[in-house]
Structure formats: C-alpha cells, structure tokens
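Next comes a concrete protein, fold included:
___
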Amino acid sequence: MVANGQSQKDVKLFIAGLDSIRKALKIPAMSVAVKTGNIMRYENGMGYADLEKKIPATSKTVFRVTSVTKTFTSTLVMKLVEDNKLQLDTPVIRYGVDLGNDKITIKNLITHTSEGIPGNTFQYNGYRYGRLGQVLERVTGLPFEELLMDNILISARMTSSAPAISIDKYNQFLQRRPSIKAYFDTVFNHLAKPYAINSEGKVIPTQYLNEFGAFGGLATTAGDLIKYSEAIDQHQFIRAKTQALVFTANLTNRGTKTPYGLGWFVQNYQGINYYWHYGQTQGESALFIKVPQLKITLAVLCNSDKLSQPFPLGDGDLFTSPVAELFYRCFIARGRKPDRLFKNKEMVAQATMALFNRDTTKALHIYQRYAGENITSPIPKGVFIAAISKVGINADSVKQFTLVTPAKIRVFGVGENCSPDLKYWCDYGWIEDYSGKIIWNMQGQPASSAGGAAKNQKVDQVISLPAGKYKLRFKSDSGHAFNSWDSLPPDNFFWGILLFKVAVN
C-alpha cells in the first residue's frame, strides 16, 4: 500500500520533475531514493556520474553528502549522553575546544547557538559544529571515523558508505580493522566524479575538498540513507525518548523557537513535521527528508553543489528548495492545499533557477507575477529630496542633494539585515556630507519587518539635517536584492532608500 494513496503515476511525475530541476541546475548526476511505509517507491540515478566517460548514475553510485553527516554526529553525541558519558550543558572548553568563550556548551554547538552570547541566537555554522568531533574523540579515545563506522554504518548495514578520510588515515584504519576494507572499496569503485559551474555557466570537473569530520564528509548512497532512516525509526541507535529530543526545535535563551533541533532541521507545515538536513560544498550536495507521521523518507544526492547552493536552506526553511516543494506536491499534499506563502516560495525558487540560467526575462516575468499577487503595503508618498530604488546585487549607488535651509527629513529604507540578531546589514543606505563623513546610517537604527523573508527589514524615521550638500548612498552585496531575490521579497518589492521633505506646520 502506498502512503497517502500515492499512485505510481505521481511517483513518475516526481521523478520527471526532479530530472527537470537537475537539468535546470546543470547537475551532472543525481541519485534518488523514496520510501513510503515499507515500500521503496524509487531508487535509481539520473544523469552521469562521470560526464567525460559517459558513466551513468545508478542506485549504486556513491556521493559525498557533506553536512548531512551532521545528523550522524548528533546520533553519536546523543548515544554518549544516554550512556551518561556526556552532558549537553558541559562547556566544550573542558574537551580542549576553545572558541573564545568558555561558556559555550555542547548544546550550543549541536544547535548552532554558539555565536555571540551563547544560546541567544541561531546561526548555522558548520565549522563550529564540526568541533563536536574533538569532543567525541576526547570522551571515547577513538577517531571520529571509527565511531561513525562502528556505531552507525556497520550497525545499520550501510555497506555502500564510508567516511571520506585521507589515504594516510585510511591505511592506519585498515591496519587496525581489516574488515572495513569492503566498505571503502565499494565507495572508491562507485564514487561519482565532482563538478562545478565556471564563470561562463559551463559544467567543468572539480575536486572534492580533502575534508572529513563531524561537520561533513560521509560518502554514501541514497539507498543507504534510507537504511539509516529506518534504523533511526526503529531506535537502533538511541532510545525513542532521546530521538524525540533530537527532533525537538531548540529554544534560545529568550524562548524563541529556532529551526534546528539537535543536529537536524525541524519544521512543521500544515500539522506535518519534517526532520531534514541539506548538504552543500564544492562538488557535492544533498537533501535528506524524514516525515515520520506519514512514513515517508526522501534522499537526493548530487555531484555538484547546485542542489543547495542557489537556495537559502541554511536559514532553516525546507520549502525554499524546489526539490522539497516538488516532494510536498507529489507525496504530502494529497488533498491539502498549499497556502499563499508556499506558492510564493515556489515562485522565488523558479526565478532563482531562471537567473542561474541567465534567463532574466523569465525571472522578471515571475517577479512581476509575484508582485502583482502580493504587494500589500504601498511605498510612502511625498515630495522626494533624493531617492535610490530598485537596487540590484553588487551595487554602490549615489545620489547628490542639497538643502538650502535646515530641514526635517523622513528617511524610508528597506534592505537586508543579515545577522541572526538583526543588528548587521548587508544591504543598507546612509547619508554623508561632501567630505565623506557619515551623517546618518541605517546600520544601528531601530528597524522593523518589511514583509517576506525575516532579513527584509525597514527603517522609517524622521531626522533633522542642517543646510548643506549631501550624498545619499546605498550599497548591496552579491546576494538577496531587487529582482535577484534569494528568499521572499519584501511586501512592497521596494529595495533602496527614499528621502522625503517633512512639512513644517
């Protein structure tokens, strides 16, 4: 029986849609496994594991899955917690991990809340998470790769999986444990070749990064990830109560819910819980989704970073991924109607893929449709003194203006406030005098939501300026900006800064 009455026709639609996404993102090879209940609905590859040799991707093709490895690290940590060998509130400095603040705990690392004041804000940070490997090794006296092999890969019979360790480490491991050779042989013989996109938009070979640790570096197949998922559901690694804690969204010190539990992203949409992780680095990317309520698991692995790289998955929203959107439509919806927000995310993802292919006409058409369906708050009206609007990526715009007499000025600016505590702007405006001295800056001003993505923030205030010559400026980075949105745009689609003259009664 197929979960939710899912038909084989819908599975075919999903695979066709997935291959379309693969081609749009110029991903050479993709391996996919979908399981509903006890039935494997699909397990195969598409595209080429080696473009030059025309070697097709199959269900046996091995891919490196980068940060999906973090879920394995979480399992190892929580096993030690269960065994009373580790406590989440223990400062990591005790294990030789010095991150500049001796109050940072294991829980702060595993929940990505270690930056700034520990526990205050969520900020995804793979490097800091990776320091959990040092903690595990200190507690157990064993290398991280050995812990991973013994406690998870061998235990779950993931026979097409192995840690992507260096040759030297492999040789040392092999001397200690000759039985692991079969796992590594399988990985070496079936590993997909990594690829990247050059500045001309062409697919070119690249190299895997020589990195492995608690942050990432596992090599596996989509089918083996399904085995891993099943072992989790059967509580093969840790008890049900402990797993429930892993799948519970963490709260900051202020009680704000974050999108991350203990090593997994945690999300609820329309009453359904999704436990997931993505991976992204040079030559590799992956998306791994568990929906236990519906007994559905999806694993998608690729040999370029483009499954993840154009999309802001690190912000913690699964449905910014076109693959996740397609997965929902084909396997989850089944009578549920996606809301306006979901449809908006679909439009942004489609526009992102169009821009990736340098099809600005298609992207603009999508943005125009989005704007027509979503503008809810008009841009302020009045007599402009100076205006900078429709600011795209990598801009540094300047408008000169002169005040003959002192004046009260209304400043309305919308930009990208990109730090987790919303105190640092990536796209922002300011006013300077002709000597270059900054008179007023969006940075540090009280801000509020501009609608759409949380990082869309606005400043709307009245200031006083003396008579003189000034420059209004606005600067943007290479990410989120007008008609290059990587996340939901602001409600009024405005990106820039406006100065209005305030009438004096």
